Amino acid sequence: MDRVPILKIGDVLLVSIQVDMSDQTALQLQDDLAERIVATGCHGVIIDITALDIVDSFVGRMLSTIASISKVLDAETVVVGMRPAVAITLVELGLSLNGIRTALNVERGMELIAAARYDEGGYGPDGDDADTETTAVP
Amino acid sequence: MVLSAEESGRLAGLLSGHADRVTARWTESVVASLRGRLSQAELRRQLQELHASMIAAAEGGLVDLDDDQGAELRALLAELSRGRARQGFSATETAVSVYALKDVLLGLLDTGDAHALRDFVAYSRLIDQMGLFTFESYVRTRESLIADQAEQLLELSTPVVKLWEGVVAVPLVGTLDSARAQVVMERLLQTLVDTGSPYAIIDITGVPAVDTQVAQHILKTVVAARLMGADCIISGIRPQIAQTIVALGIEFGDIATKASLADALRHVLRLTGVETARRNHRREA
Amino acid sequence: MTAGVDLGTPQTQAIRSDEDVVRVRQLVRTVAVAVKLSLVDQTKLVTAASELARNTLVYGGGGAVEVVTVDNGRRRGVRIVFDDSGPGIADLDLALTDGYTTGGGLGLGLSGARRLVDEFDIRTGVGEGTTITVTKWSR
Fold it and tell me: What digits encode the pLDDT tens for the residues B115-169?
């Protein structure tokens, strides 16, 4: 069975899905990722789906589950690189991918994760009342 | 089969025997119908080609325009009609160029002779076929012209422009039908990917009316953009359109809407450039 | 993938395993490209095929799919027939409702797939298996 490789870059795990995954491969990735998050202590997960020419409800559900599992393990998940045709199809299919953060490309995804981590740290000493939201983006 | 091989042979003889007279008369009668929009020299050249091709086909034993012997003649007729269609001549004007040959032939025949008359009827059948073929080529050319123009119009009317670093906009102008809305939206999403822009502004100032289907297309695009990691702002909603949207019960939900393109851009810049905006604000205060 | 599909004859593919669902997607994609569906329409059709093939496997206990090109004189299209001899669907209306599921999925398989194609036809009965036919036309 194919296995999707998981790369570690700094504090972030990067998964670039390059194959037309069977459902088993998708479930395997879900398991592998949870283990790697715990093993590495990473706080961010980027799933790059640039190469996927379709996302059906099964893969959609896998993405949602990964996001939820990561959250429990204190890691932020960002799905990046969704193709326009895939997005249009998902809307028609009725899949909203609730709870998943998305970005146009890996670079933007990295920024998003960095911002989220900064945000969390920002609630500390200088996180004073109304300013917290607006100072979120550096 | 519209004429016999013997008739075809006699036609070849008639056409080649009086070659100069045929082309001269033919040109003369056609040029009047085109009202000077095609030079006489140009027309004469075309008809001479046609004349030569007819002789060649008839000598080859042509009994029907669809025959193998008619291939060159058909190609010539198709080219002639294509040219006429592109130059803006009407279908009648195009067909007359062929039908005028009947009068010319009639003038050459001894009409008192029953055989000659029977021949003339046979020649006419062939010329009718040629005329119909011309007409069909003409229509085909016009149809492809119309299709091309519709496509060009679609291209023309849907620009996606970069407004700022990371901000693209589609100013929609004119009536949006479902097909056009789809094209525009697909192009917008593709531009987001190509330019890596996380913000898009859809400006509908130039759209006179919005129906449910078009509104749905716009909404779906906003949701699709979100799935891709980009935000859409809709600007330029005119009063009537706002009323339609409410009357149709279309839910815009939490989609950002702004009165003008300028407001929308300011909104996006505020989202991206918080620090600068805040500093200015503090200085004022 | 298969270079140069013979568009005249229907292409068939058994659905017995996970990998077969992937093969169905690839087969549908090849045919959709061959009849020149737009990129978005290709994506919609392949996604619908993926949903329905998975249904055939999970709920129908496996089956087969047939992919054929169609032509109505004006436009060309792709027709896909999913066939299984599983338990069938008892309440069709309910099965076609968004969010309804008996298999632990998102419940978007049938209803979602129906929205992604131009024509959708389903024949089923308890104990009689299920046959679903979908068609997508070029624009």
Answer: 888 889 999 999 999 999 999 999 988 888 888 887 777 666 678 888 888 999 9
Q: What is the ipTM of this complex?
A: 0.85
Distance CA C88, CA C91 (A): 9
Minimal C-alpha gap between B143 and chain A (Å):
30
B196/A contact by beta carbon, under 8 A: yes
Q: How far apart are CA B265 and CA B163, in angstroms?
A: 8
The residues of chain B scoring below 50 in pLDDT are: 274-278, 285
- Return the domain boundaries, chain B: 5-152, 161-284
d(CA B223, CA A96): 8
The pLDDT, as a whole number, for residue B5 is 86
> What is the CATH number for C66?
3.30.565.10
Q: In chain C, how many domains are there?
A: 1
Tell whether the model's pLDDT for residue A136 goes beyond 50: no
Strands B167-173 and B199-206: parallel
Fold for the domain defined by B5-152: Globin-like (1.10.490)
Q: Is B186 on the interface with C (CB under 8 A)?
A: yes
Q: Do the domain assignments include residue C43? A: yes
CATH 3.60.21.70 fits B161-284, yes or no: no
